[in-house]
Amino acid sequence: LAFCRGRIVRVPKGPLIRVVGTEVAIPCSVSDYDGPSEQNFDWEFSREADFVRIVSTWDSTFTSEEYQKRVGRGDIKLRRSSNDAVELVIRNIQPADQGRYKCSTPSTDATVQGNYDAEVQVKVISDGLSVSGSKARSPTSLRLSEGDSFKLRCSASTTSPEHTHLHVTWQVKSGSSWRDILSLTHEGKFQPGPGYEERYRSGDIRLDTGANDTYRLSVSQASSADGGAYRCLVSEWVRGADGSWQKIQEKGVEIATVSIQRTDVVISTSNVSVTERDSLDLTCNITTDRSGIFQAEVMWYFSASPDDTLSDAQLLLSMDHDSVVSDSTLISLSHVDRNSYRLLVRDVDVEDSGYYFCEAAIWVPLHNGSWHKVVERTSAPVSVVVTALEPDYDVFLNASKTPKFSDDPTELNCRITNVQDTEANIRFTVSWYYRQRLPGDDVVAEELLASMDADWALLLGDRGRERIQNGEIIFSKKSADTFSLRIQWTSESDRGDYFCVISAWSRHRNSSWVKSKDVTSAPVNIFWATQDYTLTVEAVKLKPFFVAGHTFEMTCKVSSKNIKTPRYSVLITAEKPLTDQSSPNGTTRIISLNQDSVVRLEDWTDQTRVDGVVLEKVQENEFRYRMYQTQISDAGLYRCVVTAWSPGGGGMWREAVNGLSNPIQIDFQTSGPVFNVSVHSDSPTIYQGEVADLLCIITTEGMPLEP
Fold it and tell me: Which residue range or ranges hold the Ig-like domain (predicted)?
């Protein structure tokens, strides 16, 4: 068998039991074939002996005269499900259609192997299924309140000669499509529809069988989603020859139309604004058409955000269905009328600002005397704004010390005046701001220097943070109504407008402080006239002419104006010819001396002449530069770069102005100086064995020869 292969045509195992008047679909498939992937099929029918041709997928002349009208009307047709499978569909099957059906596939194989047709027996039985609702011809209409219960009934039975089972499903339609609620399957199992699983497990959705083949749907705790048309859908099933269950027909009947009146909970007012120390009055209204006996349970909640859930919100007060109110000192809850409940909050505070909402539940009595909750609803939140009682006061800013020069101190005093209507639980704090003053109408945003929180803790801004931390800027509270700002050493960058903001804080019931008012002072301008700094640097070459190997020496004399007690730092630079690749930028920093007379080699990299350059301070405004053993590579323009420094605050030095000297040129004559060489002997005549003493004398023209 492992080596056998051939075409296999399959139809369901019969007999197939079908109900008269229903639509029947008989599948047929082929596998293990050669040739094209899409195969053709022929269907034939036999009541007793000979087969009659019904329909074909490839031959339009295949149909016999007996079936031409039914095939032409579409009562019998082929429905292709894939390249290798089709279904024979018979609409409104009749007892005359009972018999054997044969499915054949024309050969496309290279060799004839396997089976090329298959047969199945179809048995047509009478329709014995009956489904009905109430005795009324039209569906019943039910009008219910949210939380009510209701029951619906339908009857279903069958007189089929075969052993069939019924499958009963209750459905609801609130839009365009039906939804399954609960089913009793043909296998005797209860099956809740999608979305009804939890309600089925809790017992709020039930399906019970009763006498006279009745099926009762019970719905408890009805919600607005349960409104719509209800029907009872019954299908008849039979077990096939292969052991599988097959649905042979289905019938449905619409039982009732159910409308659910929604219970709403609303707060009578919308957004509310009240003044601090007043009372807040809110009413929760329950809208329901329920006419019987019921009691409401009401709970009031507070939340800082409208999006908070009940678990995140704060429960203020509650009244159960026995009208028992939870205890509170400043909050009360009263029953105004049958459906209205009033919340009263006395002596409100700013911290009472937020969102208020109420939750209401409807309870109805049961036969055993207990109460049952049928519905629960939460209102939309209402925004409540509590306006603080503002104290009345003015703010005055003045300068007790103003600078006349840089590094002089500045002191500003911010005073609270004309204070009225303040209570013992009011506290004042200050914030200091700076704004640069620009010419014209240009506006510059203010910069925060520092502010105080409600506990008088100092919070620093970005401007001057380091100076504040170093003690150069000091904030203090001189008295209960005066705050001070002191700049120990005022610089040009501190010039501008200063103003203060006095904040009033109110103390609330929970001992927290909340800002209630800000008052801003008029600005005070800090400014002093200054004269521009001037700095002059003159470089002088001490030796007008020298050659390679000699010492180059120059001095730099500095003079300045409008700078108090200046000190100078000096940097010697050299501008080399463009052919010198040692300094691609053209300028070399050689040696420097700072304002504290500390010498530093900058870009001097000649290791053989580490001590070959010297920069020294001759007097307060004169500096001397020496370069020993000059070389041809030292040619260039030499300058003094001088920076004037003035003493700043805290012993620090502040840069005032920079100056650049005239250039001093080092230029060597590559041909060299003119000189003579001669030999001299004191004893022109000597004897053999005596010592000859000779002198080699070098003389130059007009220039002494250095040792």
Answer: 21-113, 133-254, 263-360, 391-520
